[in-house]
Amino acid sequence: MKPNNVLSRLAIYTKSNPLNTILVLTLLGDIFIAIMTGPMQWPDSFGYYKAANTLSNGEIDIARTPVCPLLYLLAGMISESAKLWIVGAIQITLFLFSVKCFFRVAQEIKLSNSIVIASTCFYVISTQFISNNMTMTSEPVAVSLCVFLIYYFFKWYRNNSLKSWSMILLLSILLIFTRPSFLYLPVAIAIMALIYLCIRQYKRALQMITCTVVCAGLMFGYCRIMERKIGVFTPTVVSVINDSCIAIRAGLFTSNNVVNPEIKERLITFEHRTVRNPLWDYPNLNGISYKAIHEELTLMRGGGGGKNTLQWYLMALKTNYSDFLKAPVVSINIPSLYLYGINIFITFSQLCVIMLISAICLIAYRKRSGIIPLFSIFLWLMCAGNLAVNLLGSFAEWSRLFMPSVSLFILLCGELCNRLRLTYIKGKPFA
After folding, report:
1. 76-92 as b/e, with b when 16 or more CB fall inside 10 Å?
2. What's the distance, Cα to Cα, between the start and end of the chain in Å?
């Protein structure tokens, strides 16, 4: 029968390829969420609106890096009244393309069909439940950009085209200026450059070095601009706020441990509380310069510009975070059976174990086959960088930093399952 309506055309479209089915269901889910909830605003959303207004005046905002504020600014130029709906539509579109890219990468790294489909579905469900595409924060944009980066890195790894390398450079810049938590990217890329140097692929090494230098140089220049504005060398003041929150939660940022008399007086006002939350406590420090707070935190770390930062974080772990490794990947309080299951079965420590098993598999594959799995190494480095950022930068709610990189861990787990399946079921050596 010749298709003569939308539903029958959709049925034919989805039968031709499982990816088509996933894309249609994802789009329908996004449309349903958009109709039911409209644009969803979190407390952070208003910071992005403010940053957009600041950018419109020709200045950079001290609290938000420019990519997402620029998106809101451009949407407002199209229609101020429908600005949030336009942003939501853009985020949905980006996500649909990211689902297609994720599926293609999963296919290209030789995962079994069942693992490809399961991984893609898990990617869609995870991102939708934790931070859907109608949420007015940086997470939806960062999630899609992260997948695009992996997709173009794989294309570059396969064909070494200038276009793919250019996209890697562009996406790396966009990611670190969307969420500074992606600053581990230049480090991962630099390690890949070192590997390419060791195996004498000098052209690829030079391209990776260029990516590292450009990303690090741009962020360095941005931090210098911020230093002139607030007196602290940092991409945003959020890093100062996060550090102070960590110190408060760990019992290190107290009136007995600070020198500045104004900060000491403010800290005394809320230290008597039995239950304290740094997101509530921090407003008590409003009016005090970020430079003064940063200087106190530096002194606590041992001075010298934070040379004992690792020791400082270890003190925080020892003080109040002995069970930090048991922390769930999702600490957002949303009533959901799906999230409840994730909180039970996926914790920080379990992801560390997965990383260790994956590293062992990569080493075993290298020894048995003599081939260096470069794409898998890059994927592993990005996951490791994300965990390192979470460990050092987000004791309170590390799911906010984990969320944009969820696709990396899903791909890593899919690849690991595939290796173990081939090894123990089909008897092949970590293929």
Report:
1. beeeeeebbebbbbbbb
2. 45
Q: Where are the alpha helices (DSSP H) in 231-347?
A: 238-249, 261-270, 278-281, 290-300, 309-320, 337-345
**Structural contact between residues 382 and 408, judged by C-beta atoms closer than 8 angstroms:** yes
pTM, two decimal places: 0.86
The proportion of the chain whose per-residue pLDDT surpasses 90, expressed as a percent, equals: 30
Give pLDDT tens digits for 387-397.
888 776 665 45
Contact 342, 329 (CB under 8 A): yes
Token pair, residue 244, equals: 């102070």
Query: What's the average model confidence in pLDDT over 24-39?
Result: 88
Question: Residue 243's closest CA among 407, 45, 394?
Answer: 394
Strand partners, 347: 328
Six-digit token string for 93: 């579109």
CA 76 vs CA 24, 70, 80, 318: distances in Å? 29, 10, 4, 47
The DSSP result for 189-203, as a single string, is HHHHHHHHHHTT-HH
Structure tokens at 232: 């602290």
